[in-house]
Amino acid sequence: RCIRPLYLEVGGTIGDLMSKGIEECKKDGAFLPIIRSDQENSMFNDIALNMAKGITYYPYLILGMVCNSSTRRLEWMDGPKITYTKKNFNASFDCVSTNWLVDSELHYNEWYLAPSTFSTSWTVLCVAEPSEPISTSTSKSTTTAKLTTITTVKDSTNSRLKLRNTENNLLNYVI
């Protein structure tokens, strides 16, 4: 996966920034964060917290859960039914009759429902799958993904690959 920060702690309503985020991410064939396990939840929390370091104390990450008007239930942007949520989070409600959207409050490691008009500072990430496999060798290599040309570097401290955008040196992650 390639992860690109779209907005880092930008003020506004969750509804407006989610709509803009969905539109902008789709241009790259990307989605807002879709989380299917504790491991993915921890990864997105770590990435968003590190990117927002020093900007604000209470970062909020907008998640890629949207309302399916046919089923009247929340689902992930890429279509599948929600099979993973954080403890004490209930996604089983009629989303058509409410205006609630889902965010992750990163310092508390919890998901919350927020009215679409709720205003604070939000982080929006675009997540895309590479168009071709990325090398996992320990040597440096260059490949092309949907978002940009990247150089892969083995990260020995936490067994992840880090991607550096060769144009502006922004840090992205791969799992």
H/E series: EHHEEEEEEEEEE
Q: What's the CATH topology label of the largest domain? A: Mannose-Binding Protein A, Chain A
Which segments are poorly predicted (pLDDT under 50) over 5 or more consecutive residues?
138-175
Specify Rg, calculated over alpha carbons.
Answer: 16 Å
List the quaternary state of the chains.
Answer: single chain
Query: What can be said about the biggest beta sheet?
Result: 5 strands, mixed
Mean pLDDT: 79
- Outline: globular
The tally of beta strands, per DSSP, is: 11
Protein structure class: alpha+beta
Number of helices: 2
How big a fraction of the residues is strand? 35-45%
**What is the architecture of the largest domain at the second tier of CATH?**
Roll
Helix fraction by DSSP (H/I, runs of at least 4): 10-25%
Q: What is the CATH level 1 assignment of the largest domain?
A: Alpha Beta
Number of domains: 2
CATH H-level superfamily of the largest domain: Mannose-Binding Protein A, subunit A
Query: What's the arrangement of strands in the largest beta sheet?
Result: 1-7-2-5-6
Report how far the terminal alpha carbons are from each other. 6 Å
